[in-house]
Amino acid sequence: MKQDISQERKGVDFGSYDSIVIKKHITDIEGGRTLDMTGYPLESLLAAHVIISQTVNSEKVYKPLPIVPVMEDVYTAVANPTGNPSTSGYYEKSGETYTLSEDTEVDGTKTYYTKSEVESKDADGNTIYQYGSLPAGAVYEGLLYRSILAKKPAASILIDGVVNDVVMKYQLGAHASGFKAACPHIIFNHDEEA
Question: Which of 101, 112, 115, 149 could form a disulfide with 81 if both were Cys (CB 3.0 to 4.6 A apart)?
Answer without folding.
Answer: 112
